[in-house]
Every structure is written in C-alpha cells, then in structure tokens.
Amino acid sequence: MTAATATADERVAHVGLLRRILLKPEFGALIGAIVIFVFFASQSDVFRSAAGAANWLDVSSVLGLMAVPVALLMIGGHFDLSAGVQTGTAGLATGIMTTYWGLQLYAAWAVSLALMLTIGFINGFLVTRTGLPSFIITLGMFLGLQGLNLGVTKQVTNTVQVENLDLVPGYHALFNILGSTVTIGGAKFQIAIIWWIGFTIVASWILVKTRFGNWIFATGGEPNASKNVGVRTNRTTITLFMMVSFMAWFVGNTQIVRSGTIQAQVGIGQELYYIVAAVIGGCLLTGGYGSAIGASLGALIFGMTEVGIVNLNWNSDWFKLFVGVMLLLAVLANQFVRRFAEQARR
Amino acid sequence: MIGKRRAWVVVAVAVPMLVVSACSSRNAVNKPHNKSGGGSGGYGYKIAVVTHGGAGDSFWSIVKRGVDQAGKDMGDTVTYQSNGDPQQQSQLIDAAVNANPDGLVVSMANPEALRTSIQNAVKKGIPVITINSGEAQSKEYGALSHIGSDETVAGQAVGTELKKDGVKNAICVIQEAGNVGLEQRCAGVKATLGGSVTNLQVDNNNLQAAQSIIAAKLQSDKSIDGVVTLGAQVAAVAETAIASAGSSAKLVTFDLNATVAKDIESGKMLFAVDQQPYLQGYLAVVMLTQYKANLNVLGGGQPVLTGPNLITKENAAAVLPLAAGGTR
Amino acid sequence: MTDLEVKEVTDPQKADVPMLEIRDVTKTFGSVISLFEISTTVRAGQVTCVLGDNGAGKSTFIKILSGVHQPDSGQLLVDGVPTKFGTPRAALDAGIATVYQDLAMVPLMAIWRNFFLGSEPRKGWGPFKRFDAASAKKITRKEMADMGIDIRDPDQPVGTLSGGERQSVAIARAVHFGARLLILDEPTSALGVKQAGVVLKYIVQARDRGLGVIFITHNPHHAYPVGDRFLLLKRGRSLGDFAKSDISLPELTRLMAGGAELEALAHELERDPGELGEVGRELAQDTETLG
Predict the structure, then answer these.
(1) For C88, which residue in chain A has the nearest alpha carbon?
(2) What is the DSSP letter of C245?
(3) Which member of A261, B2, C9, C110 has the greatest number of CB atoms within 10 A?
(4) pLDDT tens, residue by residue, A184-219
(5) Residue intervals in chain B for CATH 3.40.50.2300
(6) Mutation for testing the A interface, residue in B220, B240, B268, B278 having most A CBs under 10 Å
(7) DSSP per-residue letters across B121-159
(8) Interface predicted TM-score (ipTM)
(9) Which of A55, A164, A167 sits opposite B216 (nearest CB)?
(10) pLDDT tens per residue, range A270-300
(11) What pTM was estimated for this model as a whole?
C-alpha cells in the first residue's frame, strides 16, 4: 500500500471568517436592506416610527411569505409563474365554499389546502414527467387559474369578488391566527409578520441543515449527476412545487380572513416580484445557489422601497421607475459584493 | 400493498362524507340573487359589445350584467368582449364587425386607436353606440348616441360635495396606472375642490399593498382630511388604511358595490358617485334594438347621461341589496 | 472463456471467482446494435481496462453495469451469482460505484456536500433529522487526505477545483462508501499530462486497497501502465479480452486503431536518422529544384 502523503496545495489560502460571511448569498441582500433603511429612515421620521415600520413590514411580509418557497424552488432549478394566481385560487376557494355552499369554515380551510397541494403536485408532476421547462408549464397553469378564478367566481357570485367571510361562524378564531395584530410601541403590527419570520427560519433550516436541502441544491445545480448518485430529483422537484402551493394557500387565506373579502384577480402579476425578491436575495436564475433568508431580505427591501417612496412624498406617478431603479441597484450591489468576495479569496 | 390500497379507499370514501357533513346553511351567508326576469321580446338581433374593461373589474362586470339582461329581455343574441389594450380592442372590434352584427356597442378609453375600426363598422351600415368613455369623439366617428357619464363632470361633482363637507386636502387614489378615465376623475375633483388634491398610485391587483401605501401617505402628511378612491374595491382597503393610520380623513368613492353601500349606510363613508354601469350596458342594447326595429334614436344629438348619481346615507339602504346582487 | 480462466488460475494470489463477470452481453437500441456478445471479468485488486474509440459502445457498457440500462441478452454475475440491476440504486447497493466523466459533481456545492450527496449522514429524530455537517466535513477531509489531497477548506465549491482534483473527490467518495467495484468513465480524457498522471495514481491506490476497477479510456498509453486486463471494443463488438501478460502496448495500440493503416502511418511518420520518409524526400527534392 503506497503511503499517501498529504501535499499542501499552495493555492488554497486560509479562508478567514470575514470572507466566509461575505461569500454567503444573503450578505449582499443584507447590505442592500441596511442601505435602503438608512436612506429612507434618515429622511422621513414617519418611516422610522413604529407605525411606519408596521406599514413597511406589512408589505414585506406578504411578499416575503411567498418569496421564500419560490426561492427554494428557484434553487431547485425551476420557476413557478402561477404562484401569484394560486393565492387567489386558495382564498376564493375558502370563501366560496363557506359563504355560498355552506361548508364549515375549518372544513373549507382544509379542502382548499387539499386543492392547492393538488395544484402544486400537478405542476411538479408535469415538469418532471414531460421534461418541458417549468416556465412554460407554470405559465399554462397561470393562465388556466386566472380564467378559473374569474369564471368560477362570476358563475357563483354574479360579481367578481367573494365577500362576507366575516359573517361565517368560527371566523373570529381564524382571524386571530391569521389576521390579527400585535401592538408594539403603540403601533399595530400584523401577525403575518411573525408567521413570515417563522417560515423563513424553517425554510432556511431545511435548506442548509437537512438532507432534503442538500438535494434541493443538487437538483438545481446538476440534476443528471444527482440522479446518478441516488438523489431523488423527481420527488424533490414535486415537493418544492407543493411547498409553493402550500404557501399560496396560507397567503390567500390570510388575505380573505384579514379583510373578509377577496377579489377574483388577486395575485396576478405578483409572481414576478417573488422572483425578483429571490434574486435580490442571492438566488441564481439558473438554480443551484441561493438563500431563503436572502429572499426574505429581498422582500424587505421591496417593502421598504414601496412605502418609503410614499413617506417621502415623492410623486407617485414615477413610483414604478423608482422601484425599478432601486431593485437594479440592489441586485448590482449583491453581484459586486459576491464578485469581490470570490476574487479576494483567489 | 393491499393494506395500503384499502387505506386509500377508506380515505377516498370517508373524506367526502366528512366534508359533506360539515355543510350547513348557517355558513352560506351569501345567497346569490338570480333575477332572470321574464321578457321574451323576440327581436332576435345580434348585438356585439366590445369594451375596454379589465376582466376582473367589478365595474365592467356590472355593465355585462346589464348587457346580458337586456339581451334576454329583448330576445337578442349578445356577445361581450373586452380588452384594456386599445390596439387589441380595435382588433376585437374588427373581428366582431366581420361577423356582421345588427349593432355594435363600444367604449372608447382611447378613441383615436379605435377610430378606423369604428368608422369601418359605420361604413358597413352597422349602427354603433358608444358607452362610458369617448363622449367627445362619439358623434364625429359616426355613432348614433353616447350613453355614459362624463368622468370630468363626475369628478367635479365629487369636488363640489367634498368642499361642502369641509375637505381641504385630499388624495385621489388611482388603482390602474395610465387609465384615462381615472385621471379625468381626479382632475375633475381638483378643479372644484378649491383646496389641494394629490394623486396616489396603487395596484389594483395587490390591494393589501395598496392599503399600506394609503396608510403610509396618511401617516406622512397629517393634514390630509379627504380620501377619494376611484373604484369600489379600493374603497374597502382605503377604509382600513384610514383606521390603521389613525386618521380622521373622510372617505368617498366612485362606483358602487355592496360593501360601499353598507359603509355609506353606517356612516363610514360620506358618499359614492355611481354612473350606473348596469344602465349603460342595458340601455345600449335596448337602443340598438329599437333603432333596428323602429329607427328610434334617443338623446336628441346629446349624450344620454347615466350619472353622476350620488349615493348618500339617505338612499344607501335601498341600494344595498341591489348592489349585493351585482346589478348596481 | 475457458482458456482465459485457466490463465487466471496459474496466479495463486488471485481469487477464483471474479468479483464481476460480464458474459455475452448484448444491447440494441432500435436497429442499432450498441453491444454484441461482450464478455470480460473484473477481480478484486485488479484493473480491467475497456478500450475503444468513439462509437465503440463504451458508454452503453457503463450504463449497463451501473444499472441505467438492462442488457437485452447475456448475463452479469456478481461473485459468480447472476444479477440484474434495475436501477442505479441497485447497482450502488451491490457495491458498484460509477464515476462519470462530465457529470461527477455539482460545481456550485461545497466539497463536503458533494461527497455525501445521495448518502447524507443524519442526526436527530423524526422530522427534525438534520444533515450531520460536522462529521461530514471531518470525514471528507480525512478521506481526501488518504488520497493525497489536503483540503484546508471543505466548504470550497467543487467548481473551483481542477479537473483532476474533482475526479479524485469522486473516487475518494466511491471508495469511502464501500464501493467494491469502481467504474471510471474516461477520467483522464480531458486532463493535461501531469493531471492524468495524478489520476492514474489514485486508480492504483484504489486498486491497492482491494477494490476492483473498470477503467474506460480511448488512450492505450494511459491504460497499459495500470491495467491487468484489457477489453477492446470496436463498433459494439469485442476485439478481444486479454490479460496483461498476453498483449503488449504496441499490439494494443495497433488493435485499437485498426492494424494495417496505423502501421503505414507510423512508418510514414518515423524519424529514422538514416532514412527520410516519403514526405521528407519530397521536401528535399523541392528544395533542390528551387535552391
């Protein structure tokens, strides 16, 4: 047996802790969030007040709740363009089943969960079986659900919204879970913010600390190689799509519970913002790399920007322009930080 | 394996049973009013309706209700198409005209883009009626009549009412960027309020964020004492935003739905301006039918006005069930 | 078959029953015969080289051994027992590890994640089971050291390693997970001279640890130094299954390239100091006429 001598590879320099932090995908998003916060907070006292914070955290939480599973799916190498519309389907389903068909509130809640998980399963199944790009498959689902949401709602309600969920027995308990507020510092913070933080932690733990998380990275990075070493890529992909649909169920129901009504066209167009939040958070569009915490930070940046612009009384006709510029800056900063960290270690 | 299959069969049978047993009429708080109403006019004309309304827009779904009901009452066959993009709308008009209808109903948010298509229809001898928007160009393009409510006039009416209620600094919430009619409403309010009116952009597809944005605006400028929304769905979230921002601003809206009627009744909203979209759809079909049957023309060369119609505390209660049924 | 077995018995150090025997395996795809009655053996502590140019059927051969395809006829015998590999997992469970040339690793992932991909160690109970990262990193570092590479930072993404280093990670992984038989798909084909030498060294180390190795290549100069047995494939057919003692390197090269043509070419290219080749003679004539 030849003695294997360990030859020190002179190119591998000792990697310090600071560099390791710089290299984490969420670091760029963290810097971006801090910069945006300082910018708006320094110019508007409303922004940095408790009431103001409750405001931008509210916007961020709704976006962030969906951005997290969308980011996980993106790391796994796929897109779900139907994510936004699915929130509508979930809320409308619960609303119609209770207020028009007389189903008990929690039973309707459970049935809409089953419905959403089925939609997620269909997405994942079609993607893995046909081998077609997920972009195309979920685009089809997006258009289909858009039509379904509107058609079924009109058929059942003769209008384009479902109302009066707040009159259904059992509503108040559900409201406490999903739609109530917590008063901190004199301002009312939506409970969805706490759910958002909780789900982010869970998703991050799954991604970084479990075997399934390893499979997510592998399936997104090199699906063929992974399959060859025994990673269950199909099962991983389908599970990821179902996770997005689960969150769409949660968010859609939060919406209808919070205000008691929901419109048929809710969520259309939001799917792109989920993807943007994930990309700001460090997710590669090609898959295999990214972070759930980063996606939440991306959503935070988005929320702070949307509300901050209003707080500064900038002309809101230019709103979309500001948002676009801010987002580009955030992504570029993210890119810059990562490249700097990569080069520094060489 | 058999054990697993049996388990699935049990689930497949038990779950629907459990679900059905959880049904109760106590939960069905919305009972749709299906007023089909008699009327077998038997005229048998084919009327094509092409509007610029978005599919999920509650306003246009009421127009469509009017169109459908008139079709039933008159015994006509009606088709309804819509697209917010002017070019695509003109293509829909061309397609409808190719099918040789007996009459055409069009709404013109961007009249110039639709000019050629409408004039082609007129040349072919198809009577055209315009509704809702485009009053200024209606006669010029050769339409028989215009049914609607001038957005600017409606805006001015709102401004005048608000002034009476003592509002000095209002925000006008625009939920669809670039919509000409919405801009006209806000401009009208500004013209007559006598105070300050600022426009605020939000997204109709993301009403939760819209709520936060309205709240943020109210927090940033404590002197705002009036909020004008341009759609019934936005009015609902504006109300929550006003409450969460701790503002005492007064809320009014254009267009109507059941929630708005309820809120006016309870005093949470001051008033709503309704242009009676049901009537716009209904009358258009009726007028075309009467023109074909009897060469009748309504209006005397002037537009037929369906608004502005104020819904205030006095009449809100009566309007509420109609709004809940989707016809007001 | 029998005369080859007789040759094996004369070496008393080798076991009687081969670890893997491929017997008359045939595979067709539609109308294309990818492999036709291919036979060879692999023994523990030995390297069997599978040689052939492009289109010889080498990749189909690997896919059959690793469970991706099933042979249309013929048998695979593991330790003398006829076996079927229905899935890649089945082959892995039988101790057959395949290291593919271009699909060995996930470049964006850290070395330790790649090392344990598909066989992640877990700690904890129920839904809270987590990936035991600490022991994964430790084992990775140790296994790589045993192969002769000092990985200071196992968090390094695999994509930053050189081609040869990536191969070595894949081989170390296979060895660690109890592979009895290692199939290497053209590990040296995309590497420079020194890197190729390094990979050959790892192959020898794996062999010396008691594994059987199937080394797929189109380069006889890489195969000959490390091989104990040579299977030559040409357009799906076997040109022969030879023990090292039965064949020389030039003979191997000649068989691979198709015999007579290569001889003529070699003769052309020969740089014998006393004799100019055909080309050289022509050149000399030209210079004279122009000179």
Answers:
(1) A228
(2) G
(3) A261
(4) 888 889 999 999 999 999 999 999 999 999 999 999
(5) 46-149+276-297, 151-274
(6) B220
(7) HHHTT--EEEESS-HHHHTTTT-SEEEE--HHHHHHHHH
(8) 0.79
(9) A55
(10) 999 999 899 888 888 888 889 999 999 999 9
(11) 0.80
